[in-house]
């Protein structure tokens, strides 16, 4: 009986130790919080995580309200053992974006990103290594490359519009979010690696990508049978598949082939750098191996997926809600392109669609897909004259909040703000943060905007659509990018005799 008695005697000491640790956690939080607005008491360890998961829209709106009403421009909270800062102020957001470096802020993108993607990822790179990789990526987004991608994008969009029409009618609605996601995946696959991914490889790729998608939203439990564990293995398989595409592209480019997809433009430039290094008696440049290119290509794929899905859904929602905008888009597209021409929208015609581009930019401003861009303070950082961000804090600059500051009547959906004479994208450039800012600003933003313009032009011109309105259908839902609560449920019908084919 003696061990039992000893254990019983230890219970009060254990309870005291736990209470002491909880008190230390509370005092640590209050010390870091200082005068900032935010809860005065936090639930031990969990903090506000449950509230955030149950209703993220309301949670972040409350943080924004506290940041605004206090006049500080930022607010504090506590989640899963971490001190959290929410930044509403555009200027303070720029300060975070422009100070991504080892001794300041580390861009994390996803809370468990390093565990999912690995350390060697574009968003986790700093300084010269990061600059060198961005320089090597730049040839993938030249006007010549974007023009090549435009034809591929249009073919995939038209193929999926045809599928959507078969599933919907004026009496049978469909929810577009998952259909848009599937279209984006096929677009990315075809634009990025084109002919190097066989039909069977595509099927396997889609299977693994779906496992990855599920794991991204799961708890980070890296044990067999759990979604996160399956996602990690899926990332490895997907990156290896893309590495094989890089090897095949190098072989074709060495044989004098013309670039037809993004990997071709990438490997063509990479092969030139490898040859230059060999001529100088130097080793191949970093990030030039098939495995490295495959890994970075997967990062591109992930970046393009959910963000574009969000923008496509909101474009349909906002065009339905603003028939005058829809009518102007249709007039502009009809003046420049006809579905009966048998020709795709050319790169030159795309550049002439200035109003449609203004609509695309306003969709991104009004509903930025990734509302916040999480960073971690690698070291203590002086954010203002009176407040220093503590080391290890998770900092959330709010792209969404900045989008509704500065602009004329920011709560109004108004594409005209980006047209000649107003040019609010230039006047309020610092508030347009949907693609980030500073050294990690999105390298593919022109690609993303072109894709959205093409979708709007084709969808508006070829499809008649009507929203299936329900209570709260326009409420914002995080998945993790933002989408309308009803997943953009619409009735569709065909406007023209037949969809174009080219």
Residues in helix, % = 40-55%
The biggest beta sheet is recorded as:
5 strands, mixed
- Compute the number of helices: 18
| Measured distance between first and last alpha carbons | 85 Å
Q: Examine the coordinates and then state which fold CATH places here, giving the name of the CATH topology of the domain at 110-365 and 422-494.
A: Cytochrome p450
The CATH top-level class label of the domain at 110-365 and 422-494: Mainly Alpha
Assign the CATH superfamily of the domain at 110-365 and 422-494.
Cytochrome P450
Q: Please tally the β strands and state the result.
A: 12
Q: Would you identify the regions where 5 or more consecutive residues have pLDDT less than 50?
A: none
Instruction: Let me know the average pLDDT.
Output: 91
Strand order of the largest sheet: 1-2-8-5-3
Structural class: alpha+beta
- Overall spatial form: globular
Keywords, separated by commas or semicolons:
9% strand, five-stranded mixed sheet, 18 helices, alpha+beta, three-stranded antiparallel sheet, Cytochrome p450, 502 residues
Give an overview of the whole structure.
- The protein is α+β, with helices and mostly antiparallel strands and 502 residues long.
- The protein has a domain at 110-365 and 422-494: Cytochrome p450, CATH 1.10.630.
- 55% of the residues lie in helices and 9% in strands.
- The chain contains 18 helices and 12 strands.
- The protein has helices at residues 2-33, 49-54, 56-70, 90-97, 113-117, 127-137, 143-167, 176-193, 199-216, 227-254, 262-279, 290-321, 323-336, 347-352, 354-366, 399-403, 424-427, 445-462, and strands spanning 74-79, 82-87, 105-107, 174-175, 375-377, 381-382, 388-389, 394-397, 463-467, 476-478, 482-484, 489-494.
- The strands form 4 sheets. It has a 5-stranded mixed β-sheet. Strands 4-12-9 form a 3-stranded antiparallel β-sheet.
- A hairpin with a 3-residue loop joins strand 10 (476-478) and strand 11.
- Helix 10 (227-254) packs across helix 11 (262-279) and helix 13 crosses helix 18.
- The longest helix has 32 residues, at 2-33.
- The radius of gyration is 25 Å and the shape is globular.
- The protein starts with a helix and ends in an 8-residue tail after the last strand.
- The mean pLDDT is 91.
